Structure formats: C-alpha cells, structure tokens
Amino acid sequence: MEQISNFYKNKRVLVTGATGFKGSWLCSWLLHMGAKVYGSGYSPNQNKNLFYQLKLQKKIKLAIFDIRDQKKLENFIFKSKPSIIFHLAAQPLIIESYLKPHLTIDINVRGTLNVLEASKKFNFIKSVVLITSDKCYENVGKLTRYKEDDVLGGIDPYSASKSASELIIRAYRESFFKNKKNCGISSARAGNVIGGGDWSTKRLIPDCIKSLLKNKVVFLRNPNFNRPWQHVLEPIRGYLMLAKKQFQEPKKYSDAWNFGTKNNSVKSVKEIVDYIISFWGSGKIRVNRENKFHEQKNLQLDINKVKKRLKWYPTYSVKKGVQITTEWYLQVFKNKQDSFKVTNKQIVEYMNENNWH
Ligand SMILES: NC(=O)c1ccc[n+]([C@@H]2O[C@H](COP(=O)([O-])OP(=O)(O)OC[C@H]3O[C@@H](n4cnc5c(N)ncnc54)[C@H](O)[C@@H]3O)[C@@H](O)[C@H]2O)c1
C-alpha cells in the first residue's frame, strides 16, 4: 500500500500550467490529498477550460503570468514557498508549433530554464518534476521501446523544444544540483494522454466529444494513425510518486523518467473513436484527410526503469481509459452532474485500484 496522501497533506506544492488539462487533474488530486496548492496559468480561455469548470480558481492560489517572465515567476515562488514544483506550463501542440515555432520554443525552453533558475535560487524548494514529452526522443523508427538514455531529437518545433528542455534540465542537474543542493530535479516523459475535461483544439478526444455533443458526424484526420494511449491519471500518479521519492532521497531519484503505457496500448485513431461511440451510445465517423503537416510516427516508451526503481506501472487498459473518459463527459453534460464530484470520484476509484491511501 502506497502511503501517499499523508506525504502530500499540508505540503506546499506549485503547479505551473495549472489551468491546463493535465494541471487541472493534478491540482484536483493534490487538493484531494490535502496539499496547499499554488498554481500558475497564462491568459486561459475560461469558457472551455476544465480548471474553471472545476472552479479550481477558488480552491487553489492562482497567479496568471507569462512563464517567460522570470521576475514574476520568482516573485510568485517566493510568496508561495513551495517545497515541491511540478512544471507543466507549455505550448503543448505539435500542429500549433508549426504555425508558431518561435513562440513554442520560447515558452517551452525559457519556461523550463526559469523554473530551474528559481529552483537553484530558493532553498525551500526540495523536489522539482519538469514535464517534457515522449516526443523528446529522436524517432528513428525502431520497433522496440525508447529507453531514457536513447538519443534525443525531433524534427518538428514542439519536439525540438522538448528535447532542448531535456538537455537543459540535465545540464542544470549535473552542474548545480548533483552533490551540491538538497533538491531533486527530474524530467518526466509521457505522451498522448486522454481524460475527461480536455477541450484543446486539434486533439482527438475533445474534437470527437464536441461533435457528439452536437449530434454531428465525427471527422477523423488520420484514422489509421497508431498511438500508445494512456489515461491522464496514469502519468500524474507517476509524477506524484517521483516528486515524493525525490523529496525524500534527492540524489537517488534525480533523473529522467519514462511514464509510458502497458503492452497492447497502441490503438489506431479509428479504434479509439469506435470505443468512444460505443460508450456514448451513438455517433458516426467520416474521414477528412486535411493534415498538411508531418506527424511523428508512433513511438513507445520503455518503462522498465520506472517499474523497477519507482515501483510505478500503468494500471488501466486503453479501453478502460476511454471508457472513463467518455463517462466523464456523459455524466457532466448529459446527466448534469457536478464536474468536480465526477473528477474526484474518478481519482478516488483510481487510487483504490492502486491501493493508494
Ligand atoms: N496532453 C498530452 O497528451 C501531453 C503529452 C505529452 C506531454 N505533455 C506535456 O504536459 C504538459 C501539460 O500539457 P496539457 O495537455 O495540460 O496542456 P494544456 O495546453 O492544457 O496546458 C498548458 C498550460 O500551460 C500554460 N501556458 C501556456 N503558455 C504559457 C506561458 N507563456 N506562460 C505561462 N503559462 C503558459 C497554459 O495556461 C496552461 O495552463 C505540457 O508540458 C505538455 O507539453 C502533454
């Protein structure tokens, strides 16, 4: 049994990118465990946003500023005095990175750099988990899974921003933290998460749900694209475990970590949408091949290191992940249930599944 709630109870935790999709789930989980949560976001669209839907702005201390503004970030950190930081703020979309390459690289790289600088400066910070992506690896088309020490790379601006962030995290860890500072610094790599409350444009599940809610046909750009899918709670459980272990033993756990999927998690876009439609109870699909940009080939993460050293392993099958994702939207929009309660119920069920207390 993993005693995690006791650890997070009353801990001061900062989540950058709190107003984002993953940030909202992470903040909800931290609140559930009794943490004192501080979050940052940047000009979010409040209408279609899980964070505001869950009214998290009333439950955590939120600051809205650009992560590239080092002074504002450091002021907020100084005031909130977190002992743990999860850095999620980013421009996270590959397609958007082709349209705005400079902005994507600036936000993702400079944001990471600013969080590292602040962590170097303030001694009250004890554990920092920086979220990059499975796209940080050079995709050489190999059939085996990618290990943490495989070559970094990526041929689109988003992937380049994440591999560059990885190099910077490593350099800071080696130069300023290892053997010198009592603070754990890790990067966490995951990809293709799904879950309730995602409203991002140009992502499969949100696009699909938006069509289903309006009783419209679901258009698919790349029905045969295969991806390893995972529910958002899976990597977040990994981030929470890592931050705790790193807090307790920074030297032992400061590293790069893959939070990948189970075997058999690679499914085509069409298979995922078929699952959604079956759980939703109705819906039709049409293929609309409009994608002008290169999309990376499927890449899977090797998870032997996290299994062995963190005792983390994925819990849900892809089908289960899609099922609870679809249920989230059904319960909130068709059955008009309170979104915070639905989210918390899914967190508690997932904790029980993992024997977490
Ligand atoms: N969602 C996925 O499938 C996935 C996969 C791999 C990695 N990731 C990574 O996980 C993290 C969170 O992703 P998400 O899906 O929640 O994205 P999201 O777009 O929902 O959230 C991004 C967050 O970053 C904030 N942000 C953006 N630009 C900012 C700026 N200039 N200054 C301050 N804050 C800014 C936004 O306000 C928001 O809170 C990102 O680092 C992303 O690259 C996501």
Descriptive report:
- The protein is α/β, with parallel strands linked by helices and 357 residues long.
- It has a single domain (5-290, 297-353), classed as NAD(P)-binding Rossmann-like Domain (Rossmann fold), CATH 3.40.50.
- The protein is built from 14 helices and 13 strands.
- Helix 6 runs parallel beside helix 7 (157-177).
- The termini are close together.
- The model has no long low-confidence stretch (mean pLDDT 93).
- The structure holds nicotinamide-adenine-dinucleotide.
Under CATH, the topology can be stated as Rossmann fold
Shape: globular
Q: Sketch the major β-sheet.
A: 7 strands, parallel
CATH architectural designation: 3-Layer(aba) Sandwich
Strand order of the largest sheet: 3-2-1-4-5-6-11
Helix content: 40-55%
Q: Which CATH first-tier class would you pick? A: Alpha Beta
CATH level 4 superfamily? NAD(P)-binding Rossmann-like Domain
What distinguishing features does this structure have?
two-stranded parallel ribbon, binds nicotinamide-adenine-dinucleotide, seven-stranded parallel beta sheet, alpha/beta, 13 strands, 357 residues, globular, Rossmann fold
Offer a quick outline of the entry.
The chain has 357 residues and is α/β, with parallel strands linked by helices.
Please specify the SSE layout and strand pairing:
Blueprint: H1 5-8, E1 12-16, H2 21-32, E2 36-41, H3 50-53, E3 61-64, H4 70-80, E4 84-87, H5 94-99, H6 101-121, E5 127-131, H7 157-177, E6 184-189, E7 193-194, H8 204-213, E8 218-220, E9 226-228, E10 230-231, H9 233-248, H10 250-253, E11 256-258, E12 266-268, H11 269-280, E13 285-287, H12 304-310, H13 318-334, H14 339-353
Helix pairs in contact: 2-14, 4-6, 6-7, 8-11, 11-13, 13-14
Bound molecules: nicotinamide-adenine-dinucleotide (NAD).
Nicotinamide-adenine-dinucleotide binds at residues 17-23, 41-42, 44, 66-68, 88-92, 107, 131, 133, 190-193, 200.
